[in-house]
């Protein structure tokens, strides 16, 4: 049974000793039911996000989120043109972990509802490019996963072998993937800092005075690692109308060397 907002607020007092919570309401995070979450207000007027794992399996994800957010120091955050949630407090472990982060005000758009054209899509592409431009040393220093193109290619091969062994993947699709695996040029890319599979629903937007949207924050950092930047663009299969504009925004904002086969790997 999901924890109520009041139970989450009560649990949060162990993570923020001396802080009283004056209100709490359920928070939908597009997390697929992995976390119980509440938006709570403290007695000093702050709005904070309180999360606990909904299952034993999701406890690992919340621990990974905490570790990633701690790895993003003030110096690293200063390199990004948007906010990253700050960890305000945490307590417990495993299924009883409580993680409290600051709340980033704004709105999010599910991939299926992301429109084409200027505005939302290019802004999201630019934000992802900013993440991928971060120095990889921030991930290496904190012992987070680091994968070279060769290692990623080997991982994909093992994944295909397991998928093939199930007998549930069509021969045509398996043949297409196997052929892609054999194309050397496809795997000649520069590894980058990645979110590990975020979508547009992980990106917080706000409108300026002229009603032009811009990115004010990114959530969902549990997959922070060094790997193939294409992983953060695979969600565009669910946003076919906006895909071109997201890629255009990504390319125009990127400071890294051009990756001509990025889109092909993201499919």
> How many helices does DSSP assign?
9
Which parts are unreliable, with pLDDT below 50 for 5 consecutive residues or more?
A: none
Number of domains: 2
Strand content: 15-25%
Element pattern in H and E: HEEEHHEEHHHHEEEEHH
By helix and strand content, what is the structural category?
Answer: alpha+beta
| Beta-strand segment tally | 9
CATH architecture annotation of the largest domain: Orthogonal Bundle
End-to-end distance: 37 Å
Characterize the overall form: globular
- Sheet with most strands: strand arrangement: 1-2-3-5-4
CATH topology tier name of the largest domain: Transferase(Phosphotransferase), domain 1
The helicity comes to: 25-40%
Radius of gyration: 20 Å
Q: Give the biggest sheet.
A: 5 strands, antiparallel
CATH 4th-level superfamily of the largest domain: Transferase(Phosphotransferase) domain 1
Oligomer: single chain
CATH class of the largest domain: Mainly Alpha
Written account of the structure:
The protein has two domains: 5-102, Phosphorylase Kinase, domain 1 (2-Layer Sandwich), CATH 3.30.200.20; 111-147 and 191-266, Transferase(Phosphotransferase) domain 1 (Transferase(Phosphotransferase), domain 1, Orthogonal Bundle). The protein is built from nine helices and nine strands. The chain has helices spanning 5-12, 56-71, 74-77, 120-132, 137-141, 149-166, 171-182, 243-253, 262-266, and strands spanning 21-26, 35-42, 47-53, 87-91, 98-102, 192-194, 203-207, 213-218, 225-227. The strands form three sheets. Strands 1-2-3-5-4 form a five-stranded antiparallel beta sheet. Helix 4 crosses helix 8 (243-253) and helix 6 packs antiparallel against helix 7 (171-182). The longest helix is centred in the middle third of the chain and has 18 residues, at 149-166. The relative contact order is 0.15.
